[in-house]
Amino acid sequence: MDTQFLLGWEEWLSLPELGLPAVLAKVDTGARTSALHAAEIEPFGAADNPQVRFLLHPNPDDPNLEITCSAKVVDRRQVTSSNGEVELRYVIETPLQIGGRVWPIQVTLTNRETMAYRMLLGRTAIQDDMVVNPNISCAQPVLSYDAYKGLPRRRPVKRPLRLALLTREAGNYSSRRLIEAAQARGHVVEVINTTRCYMKIGGVSPEIHLDGKVLPRFDAVIPRIGASVTGYGMAVLRQFEATGAYCLNSAAAIGASRDKLLAHQLLARANIRMPVTTFANSPKDTKDLIELAGKAPVVVKLLSSTQGKGVILAETRKAAETLVDAFRGLDANFLVQQFVKEAAGSDLRCFVVGNKVVGAIKRTGAEGDFRSNLHQGGTAKSVRTTKEERETAKRAARELGLSVAGVDMLQSAEGPKVLEVNSSPGLEGIEKATGKDLASLIIEHLERQVRPLSRYRDGRA
């Protein structure tokens, strides 16, 4: 009778060829692919013998323990995560040891810094004679992070970063401030015109070209992609992501925030309060569309609107119907949204960096204008936010996957209601109103994410 090898829902394992004597992994038969935490992923080697080097923090509770690993790349594969995000990952093959058993597995590399487990053991790594009992924790021998005690434990050493600022407006206030802040902290910034980039797609080593040359590898990319080039800008950013560069906001997150309908659906799914929003395709539904938004007055908003342009207040039902029909006649995509009267032409902009609200302003529209955008003549003043407002802003940014965001909210009688989440928030209005150096806070956040590679024991990088 064959003896079955029992696994629990979590197991201690080691990856000896990667120099990892102890890793606590989640065993997930619902996931096809195994995944290992990897930061600062750096491909190297010849095209016919690709290698990858990466930094790993095996203990989630000890970020100062850093191990540099390297392995041969066997593939690059698109993997869909549990939240639906698709990521192109490097795949390596390495021996896995659990208890007294050793066998080779393929594992993808991805940043799991926010996850409870540094490794996920998928079903393709589980052999035929293995049985997973979801009610048992650690059916095999328990290891300990004490296995790393002989390794150097030190704080990461700061190093100059090579940063790409992806923008077509190198001279505007936000771009200048980000460049100044990065250079003041010893980093190198290269301004790259988004629309001038072109790409070579295919093979293990993705390439981005500009003016006839291949762009070098960047540690991080700061995307400041204009709304008019969102589609192409996202494609360029995805290519930077494929090179292993850390992107301040991912292409997927930017796309979600720019698609107003999708953004509202994602926020609604997370039970984040917002003005009632309606959307329809058929002109036969115009009257019911306005009724569902809470009757007139209502706000009619183009899906492609930015800086308050394409946002119109319809004071009466007749005006709303006329406006909706006019937009349909132009083949424009739009939303109809509840008008929050008690906001009195003002909104709250919370600036989120790394899941923290670092500044907030109250924006008030010009006299006679319900829009509070500064580009439409509005004014701004620094304000103190409530805990509920801060939590709402942070949740909205997280739901869309944004590390840096400007979250616009209305202060209603029911509490804060999210109007919009901006993935490329301007710095000028909020820095001048609050007196805060938000550009430096963004660069400091980048430094924390782009961790330096640790060194080998003999001192080699």
From TrEMBL:
Tell whether Secreted is among the UniProt keywords: no
Q: Does the keyword Protein biosynthesis apply?
A: yes
Example of a GO biological process term: SOS response
Q: Which family does it belong to?
A: In the C-terminal section; belongs to the RimK family.
Tell me, what is one Gene Ontology molecular-function annotation carried by this entry?
ribosomal S6-glutamic acid ligase activity
The prosthetic group or cofactor this protein requires is: Mg(2+); Mn(2+)
Write down the InterPro entries for this protein, in alphabetical order. Answer: Asp_endopeptidase, ATP-grasp, ATP-grasp_RimK-type, ATP_grasp_subdomain_1, Peptidase_aspartic_dom_sf, Rimk_N, Rp_bS6_RimK/Lys_biosynth_LsyX
Keyword field: ATP-binding, Ligase, Magnesium, Manganese, Metal-binding, Nucleotide-binding, Protein biosynthesis
Pull one GO CC term from this UniProt entry: cytoplasm
Q: Where does the ATP-grasp domain start and stop, copy by copy?
A: 264-447
Q: Mind telling me what this protein is named?
A: Probable alpha-L-glutamate ligase
Give the source lineage, highest ranks first.
Bacteria, Pseudomonadati, Pseudomonadota, Alphaproteobacteria, Rhodobacterales
Q: Name one Pfam family in it.
A: RimK
